[in-house]
Fold this protein.
Amino acid sequence: MIKRLMLALAAVALLVVGFALGTAVMSGLADSTRRAAQTLPVVAQQTTSRETPVLTTELEQLYADIYNRVSPSVVAIYVTFSDREGLIGGASGSGFVLDTDGHIVTNFHVVDNADTIEVNFVDGTRARGEVVGTDPDSDLAVLQVDVQAGLLQPVILGDSDALVIGQMTIAIGSPFGQRWTMTTGIVSAVDRRIQGLSNYSVGAVIQTDAAINPGNSGGPLFNLQGEVIGVNSQIVNDSFGIGFAVPSNLVRRVVTELIENGRVSYSFLGIEGRELTDLTLDFVEQFNVPANLRGVVVTSVFEGGPAQQAGLRGSTDDTLEIITAINGTPVLGFSSLVAYLATNTRPGDTVTLTVLRGGEARTVSVTLGTRPAR
């Protein structure tokens, strides 16, 4: 089960709180948060040696250089909220500076339903954060602050599509309220899929073993070039070293649209499907599908939706309908299809699908619709 990262609760700062997906669970947790969190987290004081530290390896020096360069771009975020009884609670998360206009990127679940938002910079400056736009589908939000220009040191967004497994990662944030904490790890996997807060999936998600904890939510995941490759968002419940970050290429698209329009409009293909690799080999062999084929099995199409209008019918007891490519890009699974649509297409765009049905490959042009709310 997935657990949300966002909240390092003030009164229980040493307790890991599990965030499960689903409206009922989220509502119950919100209620308990409001009762328990009466103050903001107490931040442990950092101590430094008077002697100049000795860095013995090139990697240590690289880590130190990256931290010194990018930590001023990372912010700590504190929110307050009140329930129907008027009880006030507080929680914390992380974020980063996007541009010199004062835009701050964080997770949607960090600021959702907040009454007040406070953004803290590494030099101690505190500022009110105003919500520019939120997107529960990707669990992203953009804030804006009014501070001196010198505090606004924007990050560089990297290319998440270029990541390879084994590449080293750095997370900086405020786990349990411990601000500007740096942890390191690697890219454990790419092309993962997680649920957004609207029950739509987020594709091409980065899995990392860099330590990510409650309070890291909304903070950046860096590569060793100091580029942001993802926004830390979720961890697997009761796990060690399995965290997920929304990929930077999706972040770039979402935050641009949030700043311009206050919301994001996603394209809609109108299918339900499952990974071909989820099906047993015995089952697949009944349909004479090559054992090494990758793609998405179309289990059904939405009545009157774009896919159905283009001629897709969905699989039956006798025939599998499989999407193997979109605009010439291989579809390795549902995650890659979801990611391609969210990152590279807009409502009204026409895409070309390569579809295998009954053992015969064909191309289908589909004019995409607008993703409906869930």
In short: Residues 23-36 form the longest helix (14 residues). The two ends are 21 Å apart (CA to CA).
